[in-house]
Amino acid sequence: MKYKVIQTSFPEVLILEPPELAQDEVGLSFNLSEFQKITNSDFRFVQDNHSRSVQGVLRGLHYQIQNAQGKLVQVIDGAVFDVTVDIRPSSPNFGKWFGVELSSENRRQLWIPPGFAHGFLVMSASADFLYKTTDYYSPEHERCIYWNDPTIGIKWPLQNEPLVSSKDAVGKLLSEAECY
User: Fold this and answer.
1) Active site includes 63?
2) Residues with Cβ within 8 Å of residue 2, at least 6 apart in sequence
3) CATH superfamily assigned to domain 44-176
4) Is the pLDDT of residue 24 over 90?
5) CA distance 139 to 161
6) CA-based, 20 to 30 A from 152: which of 26, 58, 109, 169?
7) Catalytic residue, candidates 62, 63, 118, 146
8) How do residues 25-62 score in pLDDT, each as one tens digit?
């Protein structure tokens, strides 16, 4: 299946838009060879994750300082505002962010390579979020940057104060964070 590739403000971060499905079509399948051609990479996925969150939950901004993960993310039920932040000090985009709505309706996927922090805000009553990773989860290497770091300035589409986990509440400012 051929995906439409949409460039973002980061050359490495891509929105992948699948073709429309016919009425009784089985669905989409993931093809590693096609993904590697689209991203011009040799990344391979080693882990699939599924999280479910309720409206107003804000997760992130997460990354692993070692065993860095590339992530291919999508929403299979509901909608989220998905955000990625460039945390590579050598990059001209260091500290800049990009956000996009991912939903079961638009069926978009977002490719986030290693070197970026990632987070999302649930905008629907609940959301089922799937993501493939290029390395295994490594809790001892996981780091978190505050979702509301003023130097990054993410414009989250908040209706109320977000629900943030205790893990995410103890994030660091980008200026204090370990980066790549």
Assistant:
1) no
2) 19, 34
3) Jelly Rolls (2.60.120.10)
4) no
5) 27
6) 109
7) 62
8) 566 677 788 888 888 888 999 999 999 999 999 999 99
